[in-house]
Design brief:
The structure is a homodimer.
Chain A lengths: L1 E6 L13 H18 L4 H5 L3 E12 L8 E12 L2 E10 L4 E13 L15 H5 L22 E4 L13 H15 L9 E10 L8 E10 L2 E7 L5 E11 L3
Antiparallel strand pairs in A: 1-3, 2-5, 2-7, 3-4, 4-5, 6-8, 7-10, 8-9, 9-10
């Protein structure tokens, strides 16, 4: 298990003064790579064999997000290697060392020439299999997302600032844009001062590029749960996001 | 002069692999407050007297932006106190200690009850006047922005993720949204792989809030210079931005 220390930097919190979901999401991806590199299977390690890690699922569940100036840690480890996938888990601890959240990511290793996923489970002499540690986390796995809406609530054109260094729309940008969309389109029911995000589930199917249009189809599943499908202009699902809110007690 | 150390964090660069303008802009605001607090006139110090610092102008000029993993420093100091304003300057240095950019910010101190700016120059026993250091930087001051276009090229609705802890659209968000708009709307002339940003000038007039519509009026001034006015739905200018690009030599 690897540990990384952070602080909620002033001028980077969300409007409520807490660590923002966008900052946290990008930090999870960063420590995933730092931890993998430490065990010799990071992005640059696998690139030597013409492979790349691709994020398939990301679930984040958080209780009390730390506030401006607070210290926190992200702990991360690979828990499992199975078929074409690997599970990387995270626990988030506050300055007192108490857990305030968990995350579960699922990654595939893609052959950059054939674009096919590698059979990680049966790779010989695998650094990743050696690194696996069997610790679990107390959050449930991804649930089903099916959006029946036929009219998009928002269309977003992928812009310069949405892109990561590979020219794809940044994985966490889908989450940020989904939260912006929900707090806007369901404003009568959802207000960021009274409803905070408790859990997000993101499923990635297709990478999008500069200038692509992202069509957001959204629906309320129950009082505090919303499902979003982000589709291309060919009506192909690129990303699905489910967001679970909870009331803020003041 | 106060010095703050940074690193270009992987998973936070722009699509070209350089420190992004959004990250840099927010770091400038953060070190401005850290430096001011060190000299007893930060946001929390002036809040005790029911004042708040308001950013009026920001000019940033950069040569070679550092790339993924590189260390860099931001040095900052107050250079001048005059009438209702104060100038805070910045120099940016790379890992070798060589300057790669500069920034010039202008701030007013607003009385939170009357909403009027204070006469900083004539305040008795002023911590800020004592802190001033006369070092200058080699970049020119703000130029005139006048956009004749009558049709907006983009309308953006201020969303949850655009807001700072005070509920205003984040000062740097105007810059990010302007760069996204220019690289999109002038795509035939501007391409982020061939044209990088060399200098930005931002003038802030009016704060905007959740749900406000931002109307972007943009025009090309010469081959590599673009002017943008961001207006409210009442046709009032909230922010003006001028962006100077330069060709990327590969």
């Amino acid at each position: 298990m690897d540990n990384f220390q952070f602080k909620v930097e002033p001028f980077s919190e969300d409007v409520t003064g807490h660590l923002s979901w966008g900052v946290l999401g990008n930090q999870l991806l960063r420590v995933a790579n730092l931890s993998a590199s430490k065990h010799d299977f990071g992005f640059s390690n696998v690139a030597e064999s013409h492979y790349a890690w691709v994020l398939s699922r990301l679930i984040i569940e958080v209780g009390d997000m730390p506030q401006t100036g607070a210290d926190y840690s992200i702990n991360t480890w690979v828990s499992r290697v199975y078929r074409q996938f690997t599970d990387r888990l995270f626990s988030l601890t506050n300055a007192a060392g108490e857990p305030f959240g968990y995350a579960h990511s699922i990654w595939a290793l893609i052959d950059l020439e054939t674009r096919q996923p590698a059979d990680i489970e049966h790779m010989a002499d695998s650094a990743i299999a050696k690194a696996a540690e069997p610790y679990t986390i107390p959050i449930s796995s991804v649930s089903r997302v099916k959006v029946a809406q036929t009219e998009p609530v928002r269309i977003l054109k992928a812009a310069y600032g949405d892109l990561d260094i590979n020219g794809h729309v940044n994985s966490i940008r889908y989450l940020q844009a989904t939260l912006d969309t929900l707090y806007d389109c369901f404003a009568a029911a959802l207000n960021y001062e009274r409803h905070r995000v408790r859990r997000v589930e993101i499923s990635y199917s297709k990478e999008l590029y500069f200038g692509d249009n992202l069509f957001f189809y959204a629906q309320q599943e129950d009082e505090l749960t919303y499902a979003v499908e982000i589709k291309t202009d060919q009506n192909v699902v690129a990303t699905k996001v489910k967001v679970f809110f909870e009331p803020v007690c003041k």
